[in-house]
Each structure stands twice: as structure tokens, then as C-alpha cells.
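Hello,

Following up on my earlier ticket. Below are the two sequence lines again, exactly as submitted.
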Amino acid sequence: MRSDERGSIAVTVALLLPLLLTTLVGVVQLGALRVIAAKVASAADLATLAATDDQDQSALVRTGSLRLAPDAVAVARTFFALNLSTIAPLLATTPVSVAAQAEIAAFADVPAVDPLTGWRYEHPTVRIAVDVPVRTPVFGVVLPTTMTVRVRSASAPR
Amino acid sequence: MVLVVVPLLFGVIEFGWLFQRWLATQSVAAHAARYAGELGGDEPSLRAFIARELADVGIDPTRVEIDVAPTRVGWRDPVRVTVRAQERIDLPFILSTTVPISASAIARGELQR
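Thanks for your patience. The regenerated structure is below:
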């Protein structure tokens, strides 16, 4: 290799290195965002499951069919906040605040159509719908707004 | 150029692998929390379940720390399962290290004693 070719390669590397490093950091941040989204979805799933695991015992004895417990929405909200607390450093606001703003609905009378999601429920269902603001340090440098993760989760007792 | 491109390539692959492990650990923690709620706390069958789930996703269960709190959960009370793993990443010419991965999930005690 001639000395002027070595110089040409050094210039190419110097020009491409920032682009490569920026791409790498962006890929890592996107991966982290994907993980955060999965964790938030898991928190919502666990919350709706916790809310539907417990049924209205007296209604079950009286009618023989599964009915949601009267406190299903409150239980879902509590367990959503509890599960979000395990990933609190990744959120742009507090878990309690996210859970308080979540749209949580119990559909006791079925069949029913969810006005928010359009989903149809054949069994009593608890649904969580929320946009969760998350921390994205890299994207935060280039984007003026906070990124949010949209979660829709529903569970029914079987 | 090789000193730059090879670590970058390995970096993308290793971090992808790390994210996959992170997601898998989260999934195992969520399943384990639900099972802990059904069992009423920390039981040998829960440990065996977690070991099986970890092995299924390619994580060595012997190198994983599991914490169940409380060890005996009451009906309708929260039970938390935490799974901590140490994952090794190797970037040629730069570093070889272990990265701690931790996932927690909280479910509701379903056992009415």
C-alpha cells in the first residue's frame, strides 16, 4: 500500500467514524426503548391479571358465573404502579403518576365493545390503556419532545 | 479500519444478544411472579419452574440469583419475584466484561389459607 493510500484511508475513517458511532448509539438506544416498551407492557399485563384473578365470590355462588370483584379497577391501578416501580428509573415520571393517569376500565356486563380500543369482550374484562413517558437520553438530545410508549392490555377470568 | 469496524460489528451483535437476554429475564420474572402468587410464596416447585424457564431461553439457572419477597404471601397481597443474571459481553480490542441484568415482577397472592 502506498503512503498516499494510507492517508486516504485515514481520512475516510475520520469522516465515517462519527457516523458509525452515532449509528451504534442510536441502535443501542432503540434496543433499550424496545426493552422499556416490553417491560411497561408486562407491567400492564400483570396488573390486569391481578385484577381479574379475584372474582366476586357472592355473585359466583349466586349465579354460577364469573364476575369481576368490585375493586377490580383499583386493584389494577395499584398493581400497575407496583410493577412500574420496578422500572422507575426508566420512566420520565413517577409510577404512581403514570398509574393515576392510566385509563382503566372494567367491563362487567358482556358481550361488550370497548369504546376506546374497539375490542370486543365475551368475558368480564379489565383493560388498561395508557401512554407512558419514558427516558431516552440519546433521543432526548435530538428530539424536543419526551417519547412515550403506548400500552393496551386486557385480561379476563376464565 | 479493522480496529473500528470489528468492535462495532461485535457491539451490535453483543448488545442485541444482551437485549434478548434482558427481555427473556423479564418474561421469566413475570411468569414466576404469577406462579408464586398461585403457590402462596417461595416453594421448591417455584424454583424448579424458574430454572426450567431460564434453561428454555438459554440462560444458565445456576448463575442466576432469585429473590421472592415475601417468602410467604397472604391472599390478595403482592408478591415480588426478582431474577438477577450476569451476562458476559466481549468486544474485540476493547473490553470483555459481565453486565448485570435484573428483572422484577409483582403479582397477587391467590392462595386463601
